[in-house]
Amino acid sequence: MIGEFEFLILSAAAHLGEDAYGAAMREVIETSGGRKCSLGALYTTLDRLEAKGLIVTRMSTPTQERGGRAKRMVRVTGKGARAAREFYEAVVRISRETAWGRAPGDPV
Amino acid sequence: MKRQRGDSGAGWRCIETAAGLLTPVEREIVLGDLAETDRSALRGVMDVLGLAARRQIALWKSWRPWAVSLGLALPASLFLMGCSVASSGAVGRLLEEPGQSHLLWLSVSRIFLLICWAWMAGFGVGAVSPRTWWASLLGCCAPCLDCLSKWPGHGISELQLLIFLVPGLWGLWRGRQHLRLSPGWAFFLVTIAMLAPITSGRGGLMYSCSLLWPGWYLVATAIRKPA
């Protein structure tokens, strides 16, 4: 089974679709996922996911917006989508009928 | 987010300098990503250094950098320092007695063998683990610096001791460029390198022959993937 950060990356890539690449995925993870995402963590996890066959990456044509530099475009494979779905379903199953009460010190 | 960062300014230059630690392809990707964001230069530098550190750590999970830095660069530098001293000694005697043909032969053969051995070792370091060359260089220089600090001015100059570094660094450079040797050249280098401990009388035959593994590695890869 994939890990939590791998799931976030797969979800961000699936959410962005054809526009999935490093900087955009990082933005989605930080704004929607609510957690910090370093470039080091992002790119090493992308390599790992690619080695597992869960994503495929390719270099785009260079764009002016990036100072004439190419992007590493990401696409989730069928295997990657299945792995993300399995992770999500496992989280939903294990959380079912679990009431997450407020921890002491949480704002009311 | 989509504010283009100017490709100038001290902050951006720092980021570009730090990105020199990455491979060219990854450098382009990362600098492009950072050019799109409005994060501070410090955060950009930390991002790049963090990625470079993760890449280095990942490299050290393999046997290659360990074998090359601890199993080759470090012991080979001890052996090659001895060969350098022997070669420079032979040349010194030749300069004192220029007419001696056997001294000329001895000097030329020792220097030739030293060059072959050091080039092969450097090539092995560069070819087997090109991205950890800095650790191999550190492993190679540590015994040299130790020698120089323990015996300063002991009748041996730094130049005499470190002659091997020139062909060694040349070999390292060529190895990092993924130059592929033909099987014939690889066999030739290993055979010649085997003669070095015999003619120099340095380091012990078993010790120096055991350091020939990068040569055999080159032979094996040359046979598998002909030039």
Strand segment tally of chain A: 2
How many structural domains are formed by the residues of chain A? 1
Which CATH-level-2 architecture of chain A?
Orthogonal Bundle
Tell me the helix content of chain A: 40-55%
Shape of chain B: elongated
Structural class of chain A: mainly alpha
Characterise the protein shown here.
The complex is a heterodimer of chains A (108) and B (227). Chain A is mostly helical. Chain A has one domain: Arc Repressor Mutant, subunit A. Chain A has helices at residues 4-16, 22-31, 39-51, 78-95; strands at 55-59, 72-76. Chain A is globular and about 50 Å long. Chain B has helices at 10-19, 24-36, 41-59, 63-96, 101-128, 133-150, 158-161, 165-176, 183-200, 205-210, 213-224. In chain B, helix 4 (63-96) packs antiparallel against helix 5 (101-128) and helix 9 (183-200) packs antiparallel against helix 11. The radius of gyration of chain B is 22 Å and the shape is elongated. Chains A and B meet through helix 2 and helix 3 of A and helix 2 and helix 3 of B.
Compact description:
Chain A has 108 residues and is mainly alpha-helical. Chain A contains four helices and two strands; from the N terminus they run H-H-H-E-E-H. The N and C termini of chain B lie far apart (48 Å).
Give the key terms.
heterodimer, A: 108 residues, mainly alpha, Arc Repressor Mutant, subunit A, two-stranded antiparallel ribbon, B: 227 residues, 2 domains, 11 helices
List the helices and strands and how they pair.
The complex is a heterodimer of chains A (108) and B (227).
Chain A: H1 4-16, H2 22-31, H3 39-51, E1 55-59, E2 72-76, H4 78-95
Antiparallel strand pairs in A: 1-2
Helix pairs in contact in A: 1-2, 1-4
Chain B: H1 10-19, H2 24-36, H3 41-59, H4 63-96, H5 101-128, H6 133-150, H7 158-161, H8 165-176, H9 183-200, H10 205-210, H11 213-224
